Amino acid sequence: MKRIHRNLFFIAFSAGIISFTSCKENKETSTETSDKEMKVSHDEIMDNETPMEMSGAEFNDEKVATNYQSYLDLKNALVASDAEAAQVAAKKLSENGEDDIIEAATKISHTLDIETQRKAFSELTHNMEPVLENAIASAAIYKQFCPMAFEGKGDYWFASSKDINNPYFGDKMLHCGRVEKIIQ
């Protein structure tokens, strides 16, 4: 009986460790660091961690290029957990996008709830993929994935670099994710 309990404990402990480390940030922190000190501020994200990401890709269509830059601005706002900046970027995207893109961007532009914005961003990302794949002329776009997003279901976003800056968790798990695909 003790052996069964020990084995169950070991399995549960192992699963917990795997779950915890799957999106562990690559930062070393002191065990004496308070929760407040561990949180990354909006200014640190915007100034130090993730400079405003600019599209390095070139597109066959200027409208797609403009929309992709607005998408990146929106992603950066979500990384920084800045609902107001997300609204502004989404509004620009809703004015220039295609139907499915306009619908998702409009949802974001009509709310200040960051979690609602992130859910709509997921939809927006899904709708952007065929547009981006068919319009890129040079350079690369990185399709990135966070396995922890949306209660472990995982989700994608696009970036112009391999660096992971997670729009679904912001400062909570800034570097959670991996590159899944390179669109060229």
Question: What gyration radius follows from the Cα positions, in whole Å?
Answer: 19 Å
**Tally of strands:** 5
User: If helices are DSSP runs of H or I spanning 4 or more residues, what is the number of helices?
Assistant: 8
Summed over residues and divided by their number, the pLDDT gives a mean of 79
- Kindly report how far apart the N and C termini lie: 57 Å
Structural class: mainly alpha
Which residues sit in consecutive blocks of at least 5 with pLDDT less than 50? 8-21, 25-51
Major beta sheet, strand line-up: 4-3-5
Basic shape = globular
Biggest sheet statistics: 3 strands, antiparallel
Strand-and-helix sequence, N→C?
Answer: HHHEHHHHEEHEE
Measured as a percent range, the helix fraction is: 40-55%
Protein name: DUF3347 domain-containing protein
Organism: Zunongwangia profunda (strain DSM 18752 / CCTCC AB 206139 / SM-A87)
Domain DUF3347: 68-134
InterPro entries: DUF3347 (IPR021782)
